[in-house]
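Reviewers asked in the last cycle whether our approach scales beyond single polypeptides. To address this, we selected a multi-component target totalling 482 residues and predicted its structure end to end. The input consisted of the following lines:
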Amino acid sequence: MNCLEVQKRLSLFYDNRLSQDEVARVAAHVADCSPCAEELASFEQLSGLSQQMTDPQAPAHLWDELQSKLNQPVEREAVPGWDIRNHVLTRRLALAATILIAVGLGSAGYQAWFSHGHDQLAVNFARYLENFPEQPVATQKIFLANYDGRPTTLAEAENVLGYKPAAAKGLPAGYSVKEVHLLTMPCCTCAQVICTNEAGQSIAIFEHAMDQPVWFGDRPVDKCVCDEMPTNVVRVGDRLAATWKEGKRHITIIGATDLDEVTEFVAHFKGTSAS
Amino acid sequence: MKSASSRRTSPLAASNSGVGASDGVEALEWTAEETAEIVEACKRGDPAAQRRLYDASHQNVYRLVVRMVGLQDAADVTQQVFLQTFRKIDQFSGRSQFGTWIYRVAVNESLQHLRKSKRSQMQVLEQETMDRSPDDHKNIDNKELLEQALARLEPDLRSTFLLREVDGLSYDAIADALEIPEGTVGSRLNRARRELKQYLVELGWEP
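The resulting structure, written as structure tokens, was:
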């Protein structure tokens, strides 16, 4: 093993998370390499220092304040993993709250509900963006659990959604459909297609009813024009996520290698979501 | 490699650094039956059960939240963590340890708070650091330097490092709490440790 290979595994070695074979190889390298040995020693020093940090003490009044808030009426909050009936109910509540706002009542409660639901979505999506390109299977599993993901087919998805998903009309050459799911997102029931290219690289395609800038959080957005289509693109590590409006709906892809690949998808889906 | 060390406050979920091992100690140091009983009572809104759960976990939650959002906002965010815990306790399925679940709520609430107040938070942290001259650094002990270095770390790396090194969670418990794959826990810890060392050296750390 060289220094680069060892340094990639140093935390796993330190935390005893490597196989016996890898432990032996890393230990052999560290025994003969002072920079890697120093790096390992610094991990130990960091652990020691972390143990010495002073515990901040929670204020004594915290429970009394909490108890008084617990006794107040509960506001309805957006919950990841809600089912369609809850979604409809919550939309009705949101509508009711909107009417109250119009007459000047209850605006604070509505804003708290809306803000909290979208903040949670932003946190979940930030994790998805960060982890999907490198670990698509594990990341997808967690995301599906959060948004009530149901495996389906493109034909069944069309029945549920009332429109033919863009991917039902085919994918760009060299890509194949690996999984199709329906997700209950706060905005709508959303079709998600995971496809892979010939190199085995995964790309997630979301088709949704409303624009979702919250999905990209605070990441800098590049305003691009791909195949004459205005497209918002964000960089996540060495991959791209992109979103654009296609007909009445929006398409978001995650895991593209470069802008050429984004443009390939934009051009391919052009005109597919007119219905 | 790492050896066992005593901790000032018991972790909410167990630490176990063995390959492929899972955390086996009960969350909050209760038995499975006690945990189930208290959770069920909390679901019914029983104030005594809520107090018991709070007493057993608030110090761990507060300690994590202080280092995630800063001392000034920690009490408010901690309060929000327990409001969410009690209001969403119906969603606790028992698949995770209860301690892991509370950590998840604590990290999510902290990240949401940071997202809302990102600009002001960054300004405060940078200002605190920039105000110190090199001579001042010599007078700060290493524990305080680590607190400052932690504040510079990206929130995702910070939460992973704190759960591992301060709360003593296993990789799979951290993966469960943060809802990330275990492989990501390892890569985040590697980055966190290396960046922390770099920041500490910049702040005048002399190991």
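Confidence is low (pLDDT under 50) at residues 75-114 of chain A. We regard this as preliminary and will revisit it once experimental data from Aim 1 are available.
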